[in-house]
Amino acid sequence: MIKFLCLGAFSLASVYFAQSYPVSQISQNLKKNASAVIRNESTVVEINKIDEIVYRNLSVVTILNKDAISYSVPRIFYEKGNVISNVKVIIYDEKGNKLKSYSKSDFNDIAANSQGTFYSDSRAMVLPYTPSSFPYTVEFSYDQKDHNTVFLPDFTPFNSYNISLEKSSFKIINNSGINLRSKTYESPYKYATTEMSENGNEKTYFYQNIPAIDQVELVPNPQKILPKVSFSLDQFSLVGKKGNITSWKDFGLWYHNNLLTPVSASTPQIKSEIAALQLSGSTEDKVKKIYQYMQSKTRYIFVALGIGGWQPMMPDEVQKKGYGDCKGLSNYMKTLLDEAGIPSYYAIINSNPSPISFDIDFPKMAGNHVILVIPTEKGNIWLENTSQDIAFNHLSYSTTDRNVLAVKSTGIDIMETPSYTSQQSKEKQVLTIQINPDKTISGKGKFSYTGNQYDFNLSYVSLSQKDKNEAMKSRFSSLNFENVEMNNFVNNKDLASIDFDLNFKASNYCKMMGDSFIFRAVPIYSMGFYHEDENRQLPFENRFSYEDESEIVFQLPANYIVEEMPQNGLLASEFGIYTLTFEKKENQMIVKRTINMKKGIYSKEKYNDYVNFRKKIMSADNSKILISKKS
Fold first, then answer.
1. Type and span of the H or E element at 562
2. What is d(CA 235, CA 53) in angstroms, rounded to the nearest whole number?
3. What average pLDDT is seen over the chain?
4. DSSP one-letter string for 227-271
5. Which end of the chain has a smaller Cβ tally under 10 Å, C or N?
């Protein structure tokens, strides 16, 4: 992932250390659904010149329970060359009494990444504090001087669920003489408002009394609910490299010339790699062969060296060492394609399960991931270069349905990544089930997944056979398995599909009624629980379109016939369509089930309609079939 400046919730200025914070002063409205309450947060940003910026940070956070312990850890992220000073921490008990204080010397200085072995210029100072009881309050302040002025942070109330805020301010003082742009994004749901005051070259923004966003069913990402203010200087510096960002074109030219061109050189070894592949066929054939070769010889590892952690490793380094991060692997893949005479573009993206796009009208340094795009006559080819397992020309749910910044020699081109339709994001299951006289069932199943449903099954690639079986037992818990075995697992990296077979036996599937059996029409279905909420405060989001298609063939015991079966059913709503059909044959009962769900953000007023739709589906899945002995 791309390294970006992270100021965190605990950035605050030492001038505020003068009061205690008893928990009793927190209003009930802010305690509701909250694991932590931001009591007071203040950030003062002084831009002194193109290559000097000072942050004066203060934050007071009350931790109500253990779920927010990680949120309470005082930490400072920095780069080599930053100056950190005036570091102070005070811990208070529930009544606001001081328990302990800390200074800079009490912090551990570590590499700022948790992903194992990596190389990084990014560092973090972390205070190793373990609470003895709850609630408690952490008051934390420090100053930070930086030479990089491209990473101006957004001002938003908070970034996580179950965090509330009493008050927060963000003052930005521009002494540089450089034009400072800002843009306020209001909450689309009126959840909170941003206040602002201005005095000469100073602007101050405020939030106050914002309740926590509870992580309830299908609630959107807080970034889609809360307001924010974004900032960007027209001229900036990044590790001594000065540039303009008055437009995406200007920024793209700077990015291409300063970050990518210096690390785009090929080598005789890379030329030999391409020659050895003996490429032929269409552009798509060639790109696929190069991509799958690259996957076979590299692995992902976090690297945050270079210009502010944004410049990729040299392609020859990746070629020799066999590893890199998203920047280095994408740049290496781009160099291989260059050698094959195939143009491609380095594409910066916001990787997030809930799609977040760049503002085309407000250019600024942003993004947290890099992929590659290759234009062809048949359409764009998209490459995720950090996975050894993902299929060719397939993007996962964390990078689809949003825009990217494609860096070209002429500037940045804002492009849209693919968005999978429900038919493209599909599960197909074919089950053959033998009803046994002892109330058990023996079954065989064939399962296939594409689109986003391919992504959700990709994790099985690395599991042992035992772990695959255990995963199936847990996943399909609607059946009481006596045993289950996954077989013939195939990750088709050409077609972006995952297929596998299941052999299983489940107990107590049927109920006896004299000489008759009664059993559920759909053996494997969603075990989700849906509850109406008359007081829902926020909209709900179905993040993906998808389609599930099932065909279940029940083999009846000898001398049994279907005596009763449900009527065919159709449920239609604005959220999706569900069908369930039944067909009798001589010694079989065939059930066909299809559910097609639409993605979208829906108003809170429609939530109970959605719940009722899902409940009707679950009821239909649980409809019963009765078989009896022939008379």
1. strand 560-564
2. 13
3. 92
4. -EEEEEESEEEETTEEEE-SSHHHHHHHHIIIIIGGG----HHHH
5. C
